[in-house]
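Predict structure. Chain length: 111.
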Amino acid sequence: MRPLPEPARGSLTLASVLHALGDPVRLELVRRAWAEPEATCSDLADGLDVPMSTLSNHWRILREAGLISMAVDGRHRRIRPRADDLSDRFPGVLDSILRLGAAESSDSSLL
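Prediction complete.
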């Protein structure tokens, strides 16, 4: 598998992480990635009513913010959450956001 570029642990910023999680679709994608590490992009996006081009952009934003790692695996892209990096940089922040996001997504009509 060939990894795609991502920011180093030390260069992760809270502003970029919060910006990436500010979109309800991206928040849902991250929530799903945390529940199913090493899944493919298409597996994690299953059931979302979002065009593929928009999903590609969402994945890029999440990767560039440092929330996920992405590796090319043949014709697929595997997603791995960067849980350790984020926990080291921002202890407890992501867990709280994902917990609140999960409760909110069950009521959301956007997804």
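Summary: The two ends are 30 Å apart (CA to CA).
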